[in-house]
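Quick question, first post here. What does this chain look like in 3D?
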Amino acid sequence: MQNDNMEDARLVEDFLGGNHQAFNVLVSRWQGKIHHFAYRYFACSDDAAEITQKTFIKAYQKLDTLDDAQKFSSWLYRIANNLCLDELKRVGRKRATSYEALKVAPQSETTTSADSEVLRNEGLVLLHKALLQLPNEQRVVVIMKEYEGLTFPEIAEVLDEPINTVKSRMYYGLKALKKTFDAWNINKEVFTYDD
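> Answer (accepted):
Ran it through. Tokens below.
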């Protein structure tokens, strides 16, 4: 992760120095991850594509305001998360997702082999449905930790929250998921979450 941060920082500095091609490289490095994040948030390809596009437009416009180029990834996730929250406020509802839309969840370069395996069965569909039932502040932490692979300190930085708050949201989010799975009579072989 440190080398990636250094590479991103170099690209940010190159862009700010006038090399506009450097931003295109940043987009190619991060577009799949941001789309993956937004898709996990809404479980809708159109919404994920829109959030991804808006994220990079805003990043392009505001890159000169980034204080520490080493923190580009956290800054970019913060933009994407804020846009997701704005979209939820704008439409004034919790997203409802159909079973069929979840069955065709898009794969990206950031999809893990575990995700690929789960994609082939109904487990992912059930997980998405359960995620959509979580409060937004818990859902985003679970997505960032479990799907995006961010650490608690990175999530705390993205959300601008104390690390203990982030850990608490993760705990309660996973507990709520477990409760949902229990209510749906999903056995522990499909999903295993510790209390």
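Confidence is low (pLDDT under 50) at residues 93-110, 191-195.
Residues 52 and 92 are 20 Å apart (CA to CA).
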